[in-house]
Design goal:
The chain is mainly α. 68% of the residues lie in helices and 0% in strands.
């Protein structure tokens, strides 16, 4: 390979073809200073035509360099320019992954999924393809379709040497496997997550998925222990309230032996610690049901009548009848 040219920030005097050649060579640079110098040349050059093939190459190289230098927003804007002029550019595959990440940040799951599927249908370097697959798994989980992630897990490309899965990728894999009730694989992924990301930001989500799976397999004690860990480990998270509700339900329904139940907070305390929820929301409905079970267990009939009236006011008579049956 020819040696990379000296990359002075001054772009004056360069032809379009020379900048196109620089774009190709700039992708091979590994030194940060040289990457920044090459990037400056690419950004400052004015092409004779906006549809020049050399400009297409330059925009691609600019976007890649910006991403490598940690300028994700700039890179996304550059790939958007590339996409507007060349919507079918062969250089867009890498950019689609970055644009999908930006779409996820904006809560645009549909756009993210479309971009990731386009990227995966193209030829990608192994590390980029794996990144796209992990992002697609996360997108499907976020969109409430974890079972669709099973085929993605089955087709995961192996990680390059010394690389490790992303925290988000592992969290998504676990949630997919838990939804599919694949306990053995889910347990292995959870161990990997705890080893690589012991203080990870997605730990409450990972543990909630695992607790639900244990409960589905009838391991109430194991599920309760994990739920309590979520409550103590991340007490102000949304998952902590979900864990309080789930643990209160286990205790109210008598799923744990009395000796084991004594190791956990009382259901009334768990319900009292819940954050505020919309009156007609699912968490509010479940909290009312737990209160109702507890009141019935105490034979507190006046309280039962009040709770039933509250349930009817919030959820409607039809929902009340179906639920109480």
């Amino acid at each position: 390979d020819p040696a990379p040219p000296k990359t002075s920030p001054k772009a004056e005097g360069r032809t379009d073809a020379q900048v196109g050649q620089l774009a190709e060579l700039a992708l091979k640079l590994t030194d940060g200073k040289e990457q920044r110098a090459a990037l400056e040349v690419l950004k400052r050059h004015r092409f004779r035509s906006v549809k020049s093939v050399d400009r297409e190459k330059a925009l691609y190289a600019q976007g890649i360099l910006e991403e490598r230098l940690g300028r994700g927003r700039d890179a996304a804007a550059t790939f958007k320019k590339l996409e507007r002029t060349w919507p079918r550019s062969p250089y867009l595959a890498d950019g689609q992954v970055l644009l999908a990440e930006q779409a996820l940040e904006r809560k645009k799951a549909k756009e993210a999924e479309e971009r990731l599927r386009k990227a995966l249908a193209a030829e990608l370097p192994v590390e980029v393809k794996r990144r796209a697959q992990e992002l697609l798994l996360w997108t499907l989980v976020e969109d409430g379709r974890p079972m669709e992630g099973l085929n993605v897990i089955r087709s995961l490309v192996p990680l390059p040497d010394h690389a490790q899965p992303s925290e988000r990728g592992l969290a998504a894999m676990l949630q997919v496997l838990c939804a599919a009730r694949d306990r053995n694989q889910a347990e292995g992924i959870r161990k990997d997550y705890l080893t690589l990301y012991p203080n990870g930001s997605y730990r409450p989500r990972v543990d909630m998925a695992w607790a639900r799976l244990l409960g589905a397999f009838g391991d109430a004690a194991g599920s309760a222990a994990v739920l309590q860990g979520v409550i103590t480990g991340a007490p102000r998270s949304a998952e902590a309230d979900e864990a309080r509700l789930a643990l209160a339900t286990l205790l109210a329904e008598g799923k744990l032996p009395k000796e084991a139940a004594a190791n956990f907070p009382a259901p009334d305390k768990l319900i009292a610690d819940l954050g505020k929820a919309e009156r007609k929301s699912e968490p509010a409905r479940r909290a009312l049901l737990v209160k109702l079970r507890l009141a019935m267990g105490r034979s507190a009939w006046a309280e039962v009548v009040d709770l039933v009236a509250e349930f009817r006011a919030n959820q409607g008579a039809h929902e009340e009848e179906a639920t109480l049956k």
